From TrEMBL:
NCBIfam families: PRK11478.1. Residues 6-129 form the VOC domain. This is Glyoxylase I family protein. Coiled coil: none annotated. The lineage of its organism: Bacteria, Pseudomonadati, Bacteroidota, Bacteroidia, Bacteroidales. It comes from the Bacteria.
Length: 129
């Protein structure tokens, strides 16, 4: 049996490194663990922390191909973040120019959630814990 311990990280390739770095650090509050420019690939690699844990690798590559990323497309559906207060989180996003969908109720758990999008239209979810 395979004994997985946890999710180690999530890799995201962005089309505008500066814009995505600002979004994930300033707006969402991730901390920079390390940042490197890889000359041979003309690519940045940014390792981001959330709650003291390594979570996201943010990459830039010249001219990455576009991918369908709506929540109902085949493949990874979305990345969800738990928050204590959904209303405060949505207000914070709005104050930073990020639009979120109307808040919904999960019919199975009764918890509130909403979707919003990163600068490359990657669907992200806030889920009230």
């Amino acid at each position: 049996m395979l004994h997985l311990k946890s999710v180690h990280h999530i890799a995201i390739i962005c089309s505008d490194y500066t814009k995505s770095k600002d979004f994930y650090t300033r707006i969402l509050g991730f901390e920079v663990m390390s940042e490197a420019y890889r000359f041979e690939r003309d690519s940045y690699k940014l390792d981001l922390l959330l709650g003291g844990r390594y979570v996201i690798e943010l990459f830039s590559f010249p001219h990455p191909p576009q991918r369908i990323s709506r929540p109902e497309a085949a493949g990874l559906r979305h990345l969800a973040f738990e928050v204590d207060n959904l209303d405060e989180a949505v207000a914070h996003l709005a104050a930073n120019g990020v639009t979120s969908e109307p808040i919904r109720i999960d019919e199975h758990t009764g918890r509130r959630f909403t979707f919003f999008f990163d600068p490359d239209n990657l669907p992200l979810e806030l889920y009230e814990g």
